């Protein structure tokens, strides 16, 4: 039996008004419902109710990790700089890495992730192929000095992550663990009550080649994804772009386009769709060689793809463009200065005539023939995919959605084991680099994503599995010798059945109690009042639907006993529905 929580003793300063700087539901409601408090920009304190939810999310994550065979450890947040120098990420990671030095001037960072630490941990002690595969995980605080901390727990500078790392002899073994982890990640989302989608992803700062992100679908999400009825889904950062530019079929002509510098202006001027124009971008590679990129006019350049395809890519500044003899707002492939590497988006390969800049301010060219009027040196996938583009797997038009990236799994290969010299002895006694995988769940971000998906105008609607408590018993009067003891008896009885129960024993008006109960979002409310008791009933309210029902006091125990006997292990969102059937 769990203890009953007495609300009068609970530290839960709920807020009646919306906090000024909270733009989205989860941020606003987690503050208002007294789950979290801001300590600094992107840094939060968890109050008692928030901590209870956090513990539940952590436990779901822990159970699912344990079920994969991974073992829990705890690494320090404070990491020596030497390890990051070894991997090369001290320089590569950028200003997001929180760097500091100790009193002896030794460099440290507050870990944004733990590949370096875990690799250094196992490299001397995980020695034999007999000990492989091996998966280790921790649930621990991470630090990232985000350029724009915002949306409360969704993008913070200090947050809790579950990070797991696996070590293997070969790719097959890695794939097996990667698949098992992916299943566990789906189950974590489901058990937390999240509507989610796994998507093809870019592996970003972490490195490696194969990666999947788990997106909780939400309008407030910062990530954009595309998906298809055939099952294909990708983060737009990573998804292949397949589109069909439409040809503006006119003879070659240089035309005056005074004051026109953007694709939108050009399309309007010529009265053609933006997909009939070609967008030009000027950049450079790591050696400073100038590169001209051409992409379909109705698409955006995908920096990540340009970076991957070219090795390293940066757009030119206005001054650099001038210096290179390029005309901003009127760049085109016809008559480019000598020595420029010219790369076209692969979708333009099939566009015979291009509408482009004339490399002269105030002029554009229509009907420029590919292969005749100009040449393209290389073709690459350069554009960011968007809804309406063709599915790279089946060709049907893609749909678009927004999501919150709650977790991601990566196949790292030997990226870290090679740079950090982490080897094991194989069956022939030969040293080999570990093949590695890594797997991260944003625990605090998951919590916020749950609120983002489950709320209404009155507050949070916690799924049963992660609610701070399951039931709130609300005695309408406290001093009254008839009402309060009955309410307390109900609370005790439900707790004895294994439910987590709070009782609102505060000397507050009923309106305040109802408002707080809705705001905090307990899945079920039981109101105990004088009038109901006169008829021998109490009122049940299901937070999720707002449905209310009077139930006879003497049938309450049996009804809840039945509920408790039937609570599915997971996902247990609808545990109380049967009471309203
Ligand atoms: P994002 O692209 O949103 O910045 P990321 O891809 O850099 O995230 P990972 O390195 O994949 O993040 O970290 C694993 C998980 O940690 C993410 O899927 C996310 O849930 C969580 N996470 C990352 N950054 C933050 C943050 N600033 N605040 C809260 N959670 C975060
Ligand atoms: Mg990620």
Question: What is the compact description of this entry?
Answer:
With 581 residues, the protein is of the alpha+beta class. The chain is built from 15 helices and 32 strands. β12 and β13 form a beta hairpin.
What hetero molecules are in the model? adenosine-5'-triphosphate, magnesium ion
Going by helix content, strand content and strand pairing, the class is: alpha+beta
What Rg do the Cα atoms give?
29 Å
- Major sheet characteristics: 9 strands, mixed
Write down the overall mean pLDDT.
Answer: 95
Report on the structure:
It is a single chain. The chain has 581 residues and is an alpha+beta fold. Helix content is 25%, strand content 28%. The protein is built from 15 helices and 32 strands. Strands 4, 8, 9, 10, 11, 12, 13, 22 and 25 form a 9-stranded mixed β-sheet that branches. The chain has a 6-stranded mixed β-sheet with strand order 1-29-28-30-31-32, with helices on both faces. It has a 5-stranded mixed β-sheet with strand order 17-15-16-18-21. A hairpin with a 5-residue loop joins strand 31 and strand 32. Helix 1 packs across helix 11 (443-453), helix 2 (48-68) packs antiparallel against helix 6 and helix 2 crosses helix 11. It is globular, with a radius of gyration of 29 Å. The model has no long low-confidence stretch (mean pLDDT 95). The structure holds adenosine-5'-triphosphate and magnesium ion (MG). The site of adenosine-5'-triphosphate has 17 residues, from strand 9, strand 22, strand 25 and helix 11.
